[in-house]
Amino acid sequence: QVQLVESGGGSVQSGGSLRLSCAASGYVFRRYCMAWFRQAEGTEREEVAVIGSDGNTNYADSVKGRFTISRDNAKNTLYLQMNSLKPEDTAMYYCTADLFFPTDWSEKTEYSYWGQGTQVTVSS
Fold this sequence. Notes:
Blueprint: E1 3-7, E2 10-13, E3 18-25, E4 33-39, E5 46-51, E6 57-59, E7 67-72, E8 77-82, E9 91-98, E10 113-114, E11 118-123
Parallel strand pairs: 2-11
Antiparallel strand pairs: 1-3, 3-8, 4-5, 4-9, 5-6, 7-8, 9-10, 9-11
């Protein structure tokens, strides 16, 4: 049974940093593409960053240069280092996984497994 459990969210001031983690279990983590999405209240879930099984990464334009996605295959854990946070980064952040790197990595329907999310709140 695939499980994805996010942690590391919280409340920070604008300009601050947070590191999110996603602990994975129930599948061969190193073989899977992993991604972070986020959803602010009243909006659609949107892509943040993706990392393939080969380590290749992509980022949404809104977070490029501020966020870094990484993975530790020995620990079955996905990370998102978030620096220079802005109020518009406030959202529930979700970890997601799929065996194949999506044709369109920004399309949420391409991913098979989702965590429950961790809340990030950035105040000005």
